[in-house]
Design brief:
The complex is a heterodimer of chains A (141) and B (298). With 141 residues, chain A is an alpha+beta fold. Chain A contains four helices and five strands. In chain A, strands 1-5-4-3-2 form a five-stranded mixed β-sheet. Chain B starts with a helix and ends in an 8-residue tail after the last helix. The chains are: A alpha+beta (141), B alpha+beta (298).
Chain lengths: 141, 298
């Protein structure tokens, strides 16, 4: 697939995600896709369970694509998630707080399906914004 | 610049500035007004190569054996590079107010760079700062009991396992003076493969320098530890290149310039938070085979 096709695929997946359409979003993944770094089992069903928990915690989660970089079978994305904390997540009960979390992700594709993905998100920043971990003394606004 | 040149530029940052400890090289890789956008939780943007070098230096100081391992690099278009890497090390020095814990850490990161005129002009990174704090025991790990906070005055004695990891990290980084601070005056080393003994701090220094002379790039990574209140057994992997004479009771083995990797087991006695004695058992046969001094096994 071309960089243009991957770009279109990523935009479509994100639109599904931002609408809360988990089924549509999961279409991005192969059945045996592996998501590293989230501590979950391989497979699309496991990915579904992860995002069900995430959506329950942050029902209005909205991803903004900051940069998209395509090369061969790899797609890297720099993103920002904005959301309201309405349910338990990472052992923190709902706080009703609005959060902004930056992240990076790399996807490896076979054809039009993501088979493997690595993600780093600023979970420390998330917990700080939820008040679960003290914030550093000096943080740029 | 070509994609290959851009990838080489990013790799150079890890090879020379981070792992090579040549902080000045940052100015050859980053533009004078390079802007680093790190995760918000870790603080404000860093501007310029010196600020990036200082950022790297913080981790080199806090983790004497810090290693930056590049797992994947790819470039796209004529200006973007993506690096997926992991950072590993032993917490031997203060890190933003957290006194040394002797714990080992392994955290991952993704770094995206924009190249302009042959240098990195702007970059964005998200790395797992939460995992780092969890591994140091400062923030509770998921599904775990709350960790014991490390001692507050920076002087608290390390437990025997942390003491061993700290010593190995200082040894890997050639900080022999720091190692000796963590040994008792009457420390005694038994090197089982040759039946040699080394006594006192001078003897300990001689023992360490023997290996560092033969393998100047020698590194140690702990694989397993078993610990009691006063003893610790550590299994570790050692690797290096044999570019100097290797001393043995039967004379010196001249450099073979071969790379070797072998396993070692040490049994330590700890007294008052310091190393009082150790017995070193190691797989000398594998080492000698890798140096071409023993025939390969069938």
């Amino acid at each position: 697939m071309s960089a243009e096709q991957y770009t279109a695929l990523m935009h479509r997946a994100q639109e599904h995600f931002n609408r809360g359409d988990l089924e549509g979003y999961l279409d991005l993944y192969a059945d045996d896709a592996v998501l590293h770094d989230f501590g979950i089992e391989p497979g699309r069903e496991s990915i579904r369970r992860f995002y069900e928990v995430f959506q329950a915690a942050f029902p209005d989660a909205h991803i903004t694509m900051e940069d998209l970089i395509c090369e061969g079978d790899r797609v890297a994305e720099r993103f920002t998630v904005r959301a309201t904390h309405r349910g338990p997540f990472m052992r923190v009960p709902a706080t009703g707080k609005s959060v902004t979390v930056s992240g990076m992700t790399i996807l490896r594709f076979v054809g039009d399906k993501c088979v493997e993905r690595w993600t780093q998100a600023d979970f420390l920043g998330l917990l700080q914004q939820l008040g679960a971990v003290p914030a550093p003394e000096q943080v740029e606004a | 610049m070509s994609a290959e040149q851009n990838k080489a530029l990013a790799r150079r940052f890890f090879d020379e500035v981070c792992n090579g400890r040549k902080l000045d090289v940052a100015a050859e890789i980053l533009t004078a007004n390079h802007v680093y956008h790190g995760p918000l939780s870790v603080g404000p943007n860093r501007v310029g190569p010196e600020a990036m070098a200082q950022e790297v230096a913080i981790y080199q100081h806090a983790f004497a054996d810090a290693r930056w391992v590049v797992e994947e690099v790819f470039a796209a278009g004529d200006d973007r590079v993506v690096v997926r890497w992991r950072g590993q090390g032993t917490h031997t020095g203060e890190l933003q107010g957290i006194p040394p814990t002797g714990r080992t850490v392994d955290v991952q990161s993704i770094w995206v760079c924009r190249v302009e005129g042959g240098k990195i002009a702007e970059s964005w990174e998200v790395w797992d700062a939460l995992r780092l704090l969890q591994q140091l025991g400062v923030v509770p790990a998921p599904e775990a009991q709350p960790a014991e906070p490390p001692g507050g005055d920076g002087q608290a004695a390390l437990d025997p396992a942390a003491l061993a990891r700290t010593v190995y990290a200082f040894f890997s980084n050639n900080q022999f003076d720091r190692v000796l601070e963590l040994a008792t005056d009457d420390v005694e080393i038994a090197f089982i493969p040759t039946g040699q003994f080394f006594r006192g701090k001078a003897g300990f220094l001689d023992f360490m320098k023997g290996f560092k002379t033969a393998f100047p790039d020698i590194q140690i990574e702990v694989i397993n530890q078993v610990v009691t209140g006063t003893q610790v057994v550590s299994e570790f992997r050692a690797w290096g290149t044999h570019t100097g004479p290797l001393r043995t009771p039967d004379g010196e083995i001249p450099p073979t310039n071969r790379k070797a990797e072998w396993t070692v087991c040490e049994v330590w006695q700890v007294r008052d938070g310091k190393l009082a004695g150790l017995r070193n058992y190691q797989d000398s046969a594998t080492l000698m085979r890798q140096l071409g001094l023993l025939p390969e096994t069938a």
